[in-house]
Write a structure and sequence with these properties.
alpha/beta; Double Stranded RNA Binding Domain; 3 helices; about 30% helix; elongated
Length: about 220
Amino acid sequence: MSTACPVQHPTRHLGQFRGQFRLHRWLLAVCCVALLAGLAGCATGPTIRTDFDPEANFGNYQSWAFYQPIAMEESGYSTFLTDRIKTDVRREMQARGYAYDEASPDLRVNFQGIVQQKTNVYSVPQTDYQYFYSYRSRRYFAVPVWYDQTIVNQYREGTLTVDLVDAARNRLVWTGAAIGRVTRKSPQEQAQDTDRAIAEIFLRYPYRAGSAQVVPAQ
């Protein structure tokens, strides 16, 4: 009959087992990091969400101007990012055939940027080992113990929203938002991200000036 009992004092054999299992867990951790890095590298841009007024007749809209005041400039002054967004919006609206008309536009374009603190909670499977000594075989052996480790990750999430407003009714008819994590970047990188976000948002806008026909995204 075999008898096994847990022990409190390790021996030379126990040290060898622990060394092997530490190496095993280190290799597993390296593989997980490599996998996560690969998945992170697959991210191609921000998440885009859009909505529209089903009662709006987009065939009536041929001209546009910026909303006054722009939500992102409520402080009373512009920044290099708001100027960059304006340039991007002008390019996108012109590409769709809309004429800029400050005096009497059909549409007014507004935009806003918001940063929020977010918390992400998830579980990661972990493995640990308990060591026992067998008096029959006169050696230590390990028993794996599986459990989930809870990870709490806090990060900042930014949302850039572009609104198209019916100027005559002062009513929102289309909105698009780019959502993504906010990290520290240089002004040049911020400008590139802004260009990319605005382009991605307008890629989901399916109309051209004077037409209510939906144009498939390119």
